[in-house]
Amino acid sequence: MNAMATEKRPVGGMSERRRTRLRLEISREAARLFWKQGVAATSGDQIADAVGLSTRTIWRHFRSKEACAEPIVMQGVVTLMSVLHSWPKDSSLEDHLAGELVRLQYEMRPVDLTDEMLAMKMIRLADREPALRTAWLMACDQTEQQLRVIIGDRLGRPVGDLEVRLHAAAIAAVVRVLDEQIGVAFLAGAGAGVGAGAGTKELTDVKASARQFAHAIRMATGGAVGDPIA
After folding, report:
1. Where does the record place the HTH tetR-type domain (predicted)?
2. pLDDT tens, residue by residue, 178-191
3. Rounded to whole angstroms, what are the CA distances from 208 to 14, 136, 168, 182, 201?
């Protein structure tokens, strides 16, 4: 019996893996339309047409047209979270982030790079679209939940420990703020000022971004997160 045959299927008959892929494809097309013509001017029918599905199918997978942006918005933190999940205890945060982000820069598939660009656009658009802001904050909340596991394992404490929760919340805030600044810088292009003394080049260069994230995480956690663990 092959893997597809044994994959758990919900009542509707669609595998969870296929459902996730379809939701992401719908999200890509919705994000493109939102960025091109605005959220208000985009209808569920247009999203359905862009994906080649019925409007009824769109509503089967998403509660509203704005919710269609959620899967692609989550792509804005997927890379960083995958890197943090693989952080070895004998490595500093700076060294691990720099090495892994440089490696991933060359190994990422074109579709992954496109998804990250769309995520940046939706995060940027969220500044003036409350519904998209909700999607971004939901992604940040999921990030915080994952960070509890990562930090708890690194510090040898349970995920419900108060210090673990505080560190996870602080790091999630770092991810949110820096992702927003990087998105502004990247989309604006060379010469865009993003505040806090950080220029576009610094924030869009992979190694510089790694240093920026590591430094901010150390500051936010009072130095508790960042060093190698013996």
Report:
1. 20-80
2. 989 888 887 887 33
3. 43, 24, 23, 11, 8
